[in-house]
Write a structure and sequence with these properties.
Layout lengths: L1 H13 L12 H24 L6 H22 L7 H26 L1
Helix pairs in contact: 1-2, 1-3, 2-3, 2-4, 3-4
Length: 112
């Protein structure tokens, strides 16, 4: 499921867009945060289910998700129909941190 969702993010990130339908400030940052929150949460759940829980699994989930977001921003910078922004990368990283934290909180509650 994590890989499928990561592929969907990639596809949505590289397809051409025809202008911006919504010009509401910072809506795109909220979308980035939400996308990467869910990706990190899915990754934490997959690690938990597979029982590959090393002491630093939350950090690795955040690093993986944030790196994936950075990679997509770099790819977008090379596409003439897309643009890359540092603010998007920051929203991705913040979403990844929140997603990993929420995933950890859920795992902790189930084990109690």
């Amino acid at each position: 499921m994590v890989a499928v969702y990561a592929i969907l993010i990639f596809i949505a990130s590289v397809i051409p867009v025809r202008g911006k339908a919504l010009e509401v400030p910072y809506v795109d940052k909220g979308l980035h945060l939400s996308e990467y929150l869910l990706l990190a949460w899915l990754l934490v759940q997959a690690l938990r289910v597979s029982q590959v829980l090393q002491p630093s699994y939350l950090l690795w989930a955040w690093i993986y998700t944030t790196s994936y977001g950075l990679l997509i921003e770099v790819i977008q910078a090379m596409l003439p129909w897309r643009s890359a922004e540092l603010g998007d990368a920051a929203a991705n990283a913040l979403g990844a941190a929140v997603g990993a934290w929420i995933g950890q909180r859920r795992a902790f509650r189930r084990s109690s």
